[in-house]
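#onboarding

Welcome to the new folks! Below is a worked example of what a typical request in this channel looks like: someone posts a single protein sequence, and someone else replies with the predicted structure as tokens. Don't worry about understanding the tokens yet, we'll cover that in week two.

Example request:
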Amino acid sequence: MPTFNCTAILFDLDGVLVDSTRSVSRQYRLWAQKANLDPRIVENIPHGVRAIDVVRQLAPHLDAEAEVERLEKMEAEDQEGVVVMPGATELLASIPGESLVRRDFGTPLSCNLQAEACESAHSARDGFSDDVSKGKPDPEPYLTGARLLGMNSTDCLVIEDAPAGIHAAHAGKMKVIAITSTYPTSALEADVVVQRLAQIKVSGQGSLSLTVNVE
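Example response:
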């Protein structure tokens, strides 16, 4: 039974605490059509990468910030299928509030809309894309998360679902637990891989002892 000791837990949001995959996929296809792009261009978008980085890659001729604003508005109008991940509420409720940060570094609107679907026992702190200049797989998002909490990166544990996020956390010298909600185990080079959030048990106060039971 792997055990990790940490003082803060950094969560990715989409794919870990909430699942908005269907909504996001729909909006990217609609965005591509409205931007006069082939909708098939968005079929292989890597999960866990910021929307602004996706737009810059797929449509470098467009105003990326304006296009992300358009995507945000589209997401706000279509939250069908956005659901809380099984076990997310229970896991969040088991963690001391001072040791928890929910950190996705998406746009403020998209994060807030998704987070509304996952009410926890704590007022977790959120991070938005405006806080960072580089997105995953660069370590800046998670290093910024640690800094905003006043923690050393080596004292933080990350829970992720995507290779880009795992690479970002490892580059920031953090341990990572990955969940197979989006990618298969073979694609997740994390310290531990679980199939369900319910496999993660938290105990301790202040300095946490996070125990992962891999069934």
